[in-house]
């Protein structure tokens, strides 16, 4: 399924998983690491093993594949042993080696190419050539048709990023972070290998970014030389049209060549490929070895550019005989329901009913299976103490017979949603006391007495039992109730049962569950189990190393008994680390103890163990041997690593107190979460691209926003090409749209080049004109410019005049969708099926207009640069002045309408200022002041769907959260600052004459600017309509978050925004604490990372010199939006909730020129933004209202503090402390 190499060509990975019937799979895994050489799975060349699947996950022999997003992201991991082989030997003898090493890795695979389907995307010329080579007949056509109809395979190129650890690595336990780029090949249907007689498959990539995938196939009784493949070059996928490689000349009769050289052609060019074959591992397919593959690692040269790749030779071997006798593998499963136990209140640990997890909980269920296994095994002197369970049905019955307990639980859940810690503590204390003081039903008590006396009768003496709970949904083993041990009478047993039920309502348990995203209330049973008579020692045994998961090591921990604990001794007394030696014995490789120990130089051998002799150890040699033997048998039976709680009696009998799967797979690290949505081909060294310009994505989206709006943007871009021209769209994974470390980067110049190169055949040489400094006498410049200009007119004509009206009608339809009622699954289905698909249309139209605007902007820049000026930064201001003079810009009226509202409020200023935000909202909507009411309703009707970071789903609009706009109104009212738009506006002069451009340039500018201003106005209106659709989306998700909290799926609403759209659906269908914990970790990382700035966040789209940032005595240099010099105190804000602190005359320093800050423009003296573009909404409004503004002032929010006197110099594009400006 996977093969590739890292970017340095030093680490190579090949993973193949072929799933067959009866849970069997062919599993192939090769790994080459420079320090360790070549590694393969221990069972190679045999590949057959068992697999399990479910919930988009596949497991087989330590390999785990999890689909995170279809066609986009997969999680690939492995934990287990691999064999180090000597590649100088004959590959058929590689399995003779005895050197096993522990390996683990976990990678996130992200695609950077669209899927290539080998049948539908293959060039018809290759198919025609393959058919023309064969003798035609009915049988031929039938078999050929069957071959192509059953071949449902596709391939994608992508990048794996993650951590690799091999025992003995120099990096230690932390492992090594690596990038691996290669292919994901997926084939569905019947056993496709049965169609082939042989094939040659080549996957290669060169250092200059050319990716090659090629197959030459010889099928059984059909095509003898069928070719399919493609080349990825310049971010485009091109199907192969011809190939001069002949299959019969390479590898016939299994004679693998050292060199393969051939030429391959596409419609875009030809390539010369040379493969130098190095390592040649062998593996067989199927139970009967009817197929044989040589997956050869190779050095590859594509047009003399070095690279790496794989060359696979496959041969059908119908006469082969598998020499391996495979053991019958049986997996011990824990079924959900085993017997009809609907009304059962008590279940014996020795009975069949104890195998029902939903009845007795996980702990009791695993105990029951362990007991059944030991009863049938030959292990001597090993037992599970007898006992019984008070089932989950008894817990339900207790709540039914005591309705006041149910009411208290419901009240506790309501209190938990209010997040008042003191109230939660009081209510939980009352709930705990109510449970412990409640009385069990007589029928339940009688059944408990019956089973308790059976245990007593079994021992024929006074018995001592332990009482502990077993949760039906035991999500977290770190939280467990203190077991009641040493219970000897019936009353104590009944009291201990009530305490186990009550413990989940204790304040400690509630806080722990809330912190880890666990449900507050869960069904549970209670285990009553005999304690071990004459217990000598007890502890815990891990069948694999619990931290690394190394299966060659097991860990035995010995704990002191209760008497020693009462004497305040350390709980952990001894810890033994045992390592498997030659699969026959164990060696003690580490021993730590709280007691003094001495070691001798000689070793003592045992039938199972050999280790250095230790004195005064807790365990003898025989004890360690017996425990190791029991652990190995249970591990084989359960087919998984286990955590076993054990006890040894005075007669050295082993008692298993608990056996459950050992959870080794750790949660995602911060680094994994930070990069989980990164675009492929992006790493720490090459993410320098332009910041978002089209206003369709937030700068740093939450996972929910990324998985919905961001995906809709990409789908809109792809659909746009299909709508305008019936041609193949550009690559969905193009680097024009990127995510890196949670931040969005959009290069609209790249989008323009891609889209217009496809749609209007604008050659790259013409586009490069924009970044050159052509002379005024350049004839070629004018000819290319006129050609581009003519095509630009076609762009505007392609946009239908009635499209805005269509979008308005479409938006009004979307706003009628009811997203305020229903269950969580109903709301999610409505969002997925009705609202999310509807977002593509407004995004499509907005992107079309924004991209055209960017394209014509590049034309204006080219004309300005043709004037020969040496100040490229001034071009940006000139472009904004020329294109920003729009008469009917809706966004520019936001400050104007707010000022009218504030003017109407002046007579009631004191009354309004005294109101809290929610009361102030009610007052504005009341009849207290009809003019104010009318203006407020007008503002909300026009702009209620806008807000700060309005494209982020987590940020509510002004109509949904009126606190934000009330804050702005109060700030304007308090500071009494008004701006006159007409006075602040630039004088209407002929800017083209001021620039002193040549006549032809003036003619081009006048024609272009009229179109550009129309495009800007249209773009702003389309954005407003787009945000109206997004507001419906926000409203639906806000109600869904509320419903999820009400259904106890999430501890608070905000966590939903840190899950993807797909993960939310998973959570609704099947509660997962791992998903909740992941959302908690993501949110923590989001806030921590939000305040940090990437080194290369802002790179101007204008030129390499524009927007460059320098630091000289805390001077931040950016890009001028409005050339004005002001002086005042700084106000640094990163959150809109602090906007009420803004004072008149301050210079606002924020992250981006967002429309959410525009209500404060009449108050402030200037604004400085760390990111942004001159055509963004906030920047153009600042220019329109005469507010001093610079953008792309990197790290300004960190270099300046609130209250510090600063000077904002728009002429020099700088902000600096006033103290340095006065020098």
TrEMBL record:
Domain Pyruvate phosphate dikinase AMP/ATP-binding: 381-670
Record domain PEP-utilising enzyme mobile: where: 1143-1212
Classification via Pfam families: PEP-utilizers, PPDK_N
UniProt cross-references to InterPro entries, sorted A to Z: ATP_grasp_subdomain_1, PEP-util_enz_mobile_dom, PEP_Utilizing_Enz, Phosphohistidine_dom_sf, PPDK_AMP/ATP-bd
Record family assignment: Belongs to the PEP-utilizing enzyme family.
Record's protein name: Phosphoenolpyruvate synthase
Organism: Clavelina lepadiformis
């Amino acid at each position: 399924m996977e093969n590739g190499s890292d970017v340095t060509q030093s680490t190579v990975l090949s993973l193949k998983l072929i799933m067959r019937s009866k849970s069997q799979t062919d599993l192939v895994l090769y790994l080459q690491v420079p320090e360790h050489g070549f590694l393969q799975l221990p069972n190679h060349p045999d590949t057959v093993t068992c697999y399990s699947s479910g919930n988009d996950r596949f497991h087989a022999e330590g390999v785990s594949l999890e689909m995170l997003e279809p066609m986009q992201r997969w999680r690939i991991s492995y934990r287990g042993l691999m064999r180090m082989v000597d590649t100088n030997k004959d590959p058929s003898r590689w399995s003779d080696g005895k050197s096993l090493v522990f390996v683990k890795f976990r990678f996130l695979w992200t695609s950077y190419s669209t899927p290539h389907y080998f049948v539908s995307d293959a060039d018809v010329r290759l198919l025609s050539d393959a058919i023309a080579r064969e003798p035609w007949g009915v049988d031929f056509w039938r078999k050929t048709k069957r071959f192509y109809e059953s071949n449902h395979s596709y391939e994608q190129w992508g990048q794996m990023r993650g951590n690799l650890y091999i025992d003995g690595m120099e990096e230690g336990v932390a492992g090594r972070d690596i990038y691996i780029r290669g292919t994901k090949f997926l084939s569905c249907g019947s056993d496709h290998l049965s169609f082939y007689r042989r094939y040659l498959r080549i996957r290669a990539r060169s250092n200059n970014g050319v990716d090659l995938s090629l197959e030459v196939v010889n099928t059984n009784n059909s095509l003898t030389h069928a070719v399919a493949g493609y080349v990825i070059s310049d971010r485009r996928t091109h199907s192969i049209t011809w190939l001069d490689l002949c299959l019969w000349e390479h590898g016939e009769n299994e004679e693998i060549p050292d060199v393969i050289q051939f030429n391959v052609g596409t419609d875009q060019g030809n390539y010369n490929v040379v493969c130098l074959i190095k390592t040649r591992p062998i593996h067989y397919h199927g139970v009967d070895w009817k197929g044989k593959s040589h997956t050869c690692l190779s050095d590859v040269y594509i047009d003399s550019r070095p690279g790496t790749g794989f060359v696979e030779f496959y041969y059908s071997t119908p006469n082969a005989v598998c020499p391996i006798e495979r053991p019958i593998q049986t997996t011990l499963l824990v079924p959900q329901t085993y017997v009809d136990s609907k009304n059962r209140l008590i279940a014996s640990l020795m009975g069949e009913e104890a195998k029902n997890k939903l009845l007795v909980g996980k702990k009791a269920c695993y105990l029951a299976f362990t007991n059944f296994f030991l009863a049938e095994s030959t292990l001597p002197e090993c037992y599970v103490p007898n006992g019984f369970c008070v089932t989950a049905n008894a817990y339900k019955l207790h709540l039914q017979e005591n309705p006041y307990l149910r009411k208290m639980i419901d009240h506790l859940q309501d209190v938990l949603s209010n997040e008042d810690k003191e109230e939660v503590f009081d209510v939980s204390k009352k709930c705990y006391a109510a449970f412990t003081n409640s009385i069990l039903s007589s029928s339940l008590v009688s059944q408990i007495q019956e089973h308790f006396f059976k245990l007593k009768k079994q021992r024929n003496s006074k018995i001592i039992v332990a009482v502990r709970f077993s949760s039906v949904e035991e999500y977290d083993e770190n939280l467990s109730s203190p077991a009641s041990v040493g219970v000897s009478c019936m009353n104590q047993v009944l009291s201990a049962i009530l305490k186990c039920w009550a413990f989940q309502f204790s304040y400690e348990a509630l806080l722990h569950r809330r912190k880890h995203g666990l449900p507050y209330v869960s069904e549970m049973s209670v285990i009553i189990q005999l304690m071990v008579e004459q217990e000598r020692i007890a502890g815990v045994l891990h069948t694999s190393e619990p931290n690394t998961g190394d299966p060659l090591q097991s860990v035995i921990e010995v704990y002191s008994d209760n008497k020693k604990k009462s004497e305040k001794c350390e709980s952990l007394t001894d810890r033994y680390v045992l390592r498997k030696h030659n699969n026959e014995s164990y060696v003690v490789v580490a021993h730590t103890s709280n007691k003094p120990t001495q070691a001798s130089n000689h070793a003592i051998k045992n039938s199972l163990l050999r280790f250095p002799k230790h004195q005064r150890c807790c365990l003898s040699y025989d004890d360690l041997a017996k425990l190791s033997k029991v652990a190995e048998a249970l591990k084989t039976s359960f087919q998984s690593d286990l955590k076993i709680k054990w006890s040894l009696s005075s007669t050295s009998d082993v008692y298993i107190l608990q056996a459950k799967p050992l959870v080794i797979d750790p949660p995602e690290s911060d680094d994994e979460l930070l990069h989980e949505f990164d675009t492929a081909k992006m790493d720490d060294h090459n993410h320098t691209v332009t910041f978002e310009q089209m206003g369709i994505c937030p700068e740093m989206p939450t996972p929910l926003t990324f998985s919905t709006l961001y995906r809709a943007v990409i789908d809109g871009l792809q659909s746009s090409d299909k709508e305008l021209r019936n041609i193949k769209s550009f690559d969905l994974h193009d680097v024009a749209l990127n995510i890196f470390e949670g931040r969005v980067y959009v290069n609209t110049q790249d989008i323009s080049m891609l889209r217009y190169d496809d749609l209007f055949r604008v050659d790259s040489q013409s586009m490069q004109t924009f970044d050159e400094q052509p002379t005024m006498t350049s004839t070629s410049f004018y000819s290319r410019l006129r050609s581009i200009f003519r095509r630009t007119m076609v762009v505007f004509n392609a946009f239908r005049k009635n499209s805005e009206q269509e979008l308005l009608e479409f938006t009004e339809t979307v706003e009628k969708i009811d997203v305020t009622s229903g269950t969580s699954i109903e709301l999610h289905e409505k969002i997925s099926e009705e609202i999310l698909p509807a977002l593509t249309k407004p995004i499509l139209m907005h992107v079309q207009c924004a991209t055209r605007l960017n394209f014509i902007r590049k034309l204006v820049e080219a004309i300005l640069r043709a004037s020969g000026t040496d100040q490229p930064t001034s071009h940006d201001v000139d472009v904004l002045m020329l294109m920003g003079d729009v008469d009917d810009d809706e966004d520019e009226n936001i400050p104007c309408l707010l000022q009218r509202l504030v003017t109407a409020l002046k007579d009631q200023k004191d009354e309004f200022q005294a109101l809290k935000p929610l009361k102030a909202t009610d007052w504005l909507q009341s009849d207290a002041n009809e003019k104010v009411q009318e203006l407020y309703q007008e503002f909300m009707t026009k702009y209620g769907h806008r807000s700060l970071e309005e494209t982020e789903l987590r940020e509510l609009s002004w109509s949904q959260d009126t606190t934000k706009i009330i804050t702005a109104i109060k700030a304007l009212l308090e500071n009494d600052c008004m701006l006159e738009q007409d006075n602040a506006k630039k004088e209407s002069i002929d800017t083209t004459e001021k620039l002193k451009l040549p006549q032809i340039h003036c003619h081009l500018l006048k024609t272009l600017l009229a179109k550009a201003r129309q495009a800007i106005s249209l773009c702003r209106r389309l954005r407003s309509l787009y945000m109206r659709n997004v507001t419906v989306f926000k409203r639906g998700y806000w109600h869904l978050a509320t419903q999820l909290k009400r259904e106890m799926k999430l501890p608070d609403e905000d966590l939903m925004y840190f899950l993807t759209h797909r993960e939310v659906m998973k959570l609704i269908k099947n509660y997962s604490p791992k998903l909740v914990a992941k959302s908690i970790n993501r949110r923590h990382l989001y806030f921590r990372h939000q305040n940090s700035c990437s080194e290369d966040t802002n790179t101007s789209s204008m030129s390499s010199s524009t927007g460059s940032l320098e630091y000289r005595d805390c001077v931040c240099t950016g890009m001028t939006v409005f050339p004005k010099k002001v002086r005042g105190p700084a106000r640094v804000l990163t959150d809109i909730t602090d906007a009420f602190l803004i004072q008149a005359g301050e210079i606002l320093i924020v992250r981006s020129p967002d429309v959410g800050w525009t209500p404060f423009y009449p108050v402030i003296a200037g604004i400085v933004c760390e990111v942004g573009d001159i055509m963004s909404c906030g920047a153009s409004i600042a220019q329109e209202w005469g507010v001093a503004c610079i953008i792309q002032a990197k790290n300004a929010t960190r270099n300046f503090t609130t209250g510090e006197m600063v000077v904002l110099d728009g002429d020099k594009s700088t902000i600096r402390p006033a103290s340095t400006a006065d020098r």
